Amino acid sequence: MNGETSVVVHAEPDVLAQAVAARLIVALIDAQAARGEASVVLTGGRVASAVYRAIRELPARDAVDWRRVDLWWGDERFVPAGDPDRNDAQARAALLDALPLDPARVHPMPAADGPAGNDPEAAAAAYAAELAAAAKPGTAALPHFDVLLLGVGEDGHVASVFPEHPVAYESRPVSAVRGSPKPPPVRLTLTLPAINTADQVWLVAAGPDKARPVGMALAGAGPVQLPAAGVAGLSRTLWLLDREAAAEVKPRFRSLR
Ligand SMILES: O=C1O[C@H](COP(=O)(O)O)[C@@H](O)[C@H](O)[C@H]1O
What we know:
Layout: E1 4-10, H1 13-35, E2 38-42, H2 46-57, E3 69-73, E4 75-77, H3 87-94, E5 106-107, H4 120-134, E6 147-151, E7 174-177, E8 187-190, H5 192-195, E9 200-205, H6 211-218, E10 236-242
Parallel strand pairs: 1-10, 2-3, 2-6, 3-5, 6-9, 9-10
Antiparallel strand pairs: 4-8, 7-8
Helix pairs in contact: 1-2
The protein binds ligand LXAUTJHC.
Ligand LXAUTJHC binds at residues 43-47, 75, 87, 150-151, 153, 159-160, 182.
């Protein structure tokens, strides 16, 4: 059973990034108050990097006990460690290097020069095993995710689940992606079934190029044709948009501002 879907529209991309940053800090504080720890799935892309930079600048970030935050990634470009194309490299540069994190709780997806070798299928299996090892014993193959962040591609992809690509049909939690329509061509990704185990999923999008996929996803497009339409958090699915990305959202979804 999936929870409520809501849409929050902010006037400008900068305000959107600031608001998502503040919202994420509060979500982490709340999770730690309730469970003693918090778990976030990070994403890549331009708007995500803006959110990470905004968190870095917010004094309230010190209200989070970063040593008790687990960080996972929703997708990764399968290139060598440290490559600036990697989503984890971008997140580290924008934010993570400035936080007192517990390295044992930072879980980047494997790199092409990592222990699994230059074999994306083996790397996907290794990440699935790492996730399963963090899951509650005797339960699912995935740990609890408090908040899972997603960007939205111009074609409606989320993480590295691309429209009409075999990965859009994948039921295993982690998949290799070959022949990505967006470079680089080889990637790793959580699949839609794995994404949809998160308590809250936040889809963050800014700019006019995102208006069509966002509008179509909220209007009920098919998840294979438009993976963003197949995303739903267990308790909440939250679309966080700037005004341009929200341009094609039907008025009935514009419940919050
Ligand atoms: O390639 C990717 O693109 C999407 C969207 O990025 P954006 O720059 O258009 O916001 C991102 O969510 C994903 O993590 C990344 O690998």
